[in-house]
Amino acid sequence: LMPFLTAPLIIMCATRLPVLPQPKVDLSYGMYLMHAPLIQFALLTGLFHDSYWFLALFTLVVAALAYLGNKLIEVPGQNAGRRVTRWLVSRRQAAQESAAPSDVPGQ
């Protein structure tokens, strides 16, 4: 019975609420990567508590670490990958140009 009661509410919220602006930093992948090891760490060290306060604090910690991971690892890695790709493409183009026959007559 609960799905039949909550589905209309979810549809109403999805279609009538204003669209929020897109954030400048996408933390979804970083939060996905960080949450499981941090939960395990909290369980193993006895820090885990079954409360809303812990959930709120845990979410903030995961978001902060995801932000740091994004700024210190993900973005620099993507930029390095783009540089390597541009370098490889330029090498391939230079090799193709040097291997192509000259279009200048008499050479």
Which residue ranges are poorly predicted, with pLDDT under 50 across at least 5 consecutive positions?
Answer: none
Let me know the average pLDDT: 89
How far is the first residue's CA from the last residue's CA? 83 Å
Order of helices and strands: HHH
Q: What would the principal axes of the Cα set say about the shape?
A: elongated
Largest sheet: none
By helix and strand content, what is the structural category?
Answer: mainly alpha
What is the β-strand count?
A: 0
Content of β-strand: under 5%
Radius of gyration: 26 Å
Helical content stands at over 70%
* Number of distinct helices: 3
Describe the structure.
This protein has helices spanning 2-16, 28-45, 52-99. By secondary structure, the chain is mainly alpha-helical. Helix 2 packs across helix 3.
Offer a quick outline of the entry.
The protein has helices spanning 2-16, 28-45, 52-99.
List keywords for this structure.
107 residues, mainly alpha, 3 helices, 76% helix, elongated
List the helices and strands and how they pair.
Elements: H1 2-16, H2 28-45, H3 52-99
Helix pairs in contact: 2-3
